[in-house]
Write a structure and sequence with these properties.
The structure is a homodimer. Chain A is an alpha+beta fold. Chain A contains 5 helices and 13 strands. Chains A and B meet through strand 1, strand 2, strand 5, strand 6 and helix 2 of A and strand 1, strand 2, strand 5, strand 6 and helix 2 of B. Strand 11 of chain A pairs antiparallel with strand 1 of chain B.
Chain lengths: ~200, ~200
């Protein structure tokens, strides 16, 4: 039975985006954000929405740069931790023992232990209410060689990213099995229809 | 070893968003989009980025409304199909045998067979280059009662959403197992640190 429900921001799956920034004092910070996604292909852009209450919001406003780091499943506790505590009060890199490495392209830190990261320069900022959407142009990426496929692209089966189940489960998940090839299994379906 | 790579729009995981719209002639259409995510909590907003070449782009411009339908894993072929073929040339609902149902709140169709959908009115449109980002305010949701948790929220373990592995695998995946509770496992980690 279909039910009508009040509006909820429960997108399934939601990604686990670890946003890296520097403060005006050069101190690196990371936070866990789930509100974001790819925004465009050309130029390549990614968006992340943050509350003005966060240190990351102010850091991005000041530096005009951020990284989006994708944690592998073995770092799900660290990913959760950096979403629970405030960067103004704690040194999240130190407490998690994660290592900040300055991006060669932009003014923001990369999480060394995570399999790959987007290096972004802020291009647009859209105030939507409680959250401000920051759109960053992806100017480069950094990845562990072990998570790349033969074409040097991050492979989901090697990255083993974390999914957030959002408010309906309040839990993290890993990826399961392969269902089928994209831009391919649909053709199969089309053929089934045509054959009728 | 960390490698520097050219910019790529490979976010892991990427969601599978099935965008529902009506044409000016009232014909329902659906397309598969991966560029999008939650944009803000208050007001609740979701974004999806589309190319001007798509019928959905023009439909949203005309109607100012769209749905974001979340397919369950058993519909991965249908989801792929509606991303391969063009709405101007084919009746995607008819060919997939999916059923359009008009939203009670907005001027866009819901995919009856999919477990839940967001009902959105367009509030902002941001031209980024090849893609235009449409930000919709979520004014309501529709869900199958079977995919809800006791608090009437969509539960990822019941929804069984599809993940897209993006360009590194060009394949769809399902969700795996639970890693741990959000806003919780990080505290455990924090305690481990404090105990040192």
């Amino acid at each position: 039975m279909k039910l009508s429900l009040p509006a909820q921001t429960i997108l399934l799956p939601s990604p686990v985006l670890i946003i890296g920034t520097y403060g005006s004092d050069g101190r690196p910070n990371i936070m866990n954000a789930a509100w974001g996604g790819i925004a465009s292909s050309k130029p390549p852009c990614i968006s992340v929405s943050l509350r003005a209450a966060t240190l990351s919001y102010h850091n991005i406003k000041q530096t005009g740069a951020f990284t989006v780091n994708i944690p592998s499943e073995k770092y799900f506790k660290e990913a959760d931790f950096v979403g629970i505590v405030a960067g103004r009060e704690r040194d999240k890199f130190k407490e998690t023992r994660l290592t900040p490495e300055k991006s060669k392209l932009i003014n923001a830190p990369i999480v060394k232990e995570f399999p790959y990261a987007f290096e972004c320069n802020l291009v647009k900022q859209i105030d939507l209410g409680l959250h401000t959407m920051f759109i960053g142009e992806i100017v480069g990426m950094v990845a562990d060689s072990e998570v790349l496929n033969p074409n040097q692209l991050p492979d989901i089966e090697k990255v083993r990213p974390i999914l957030w189940g959002s408010f309906g489960s309040m839990a993290y998940y890993n990826i399961g099995g392969k269902l089928g090839d994209a831009f391919s299994v649909g053709n199969e379906f089309k053929k089934e229809i045509t054959d009728l």
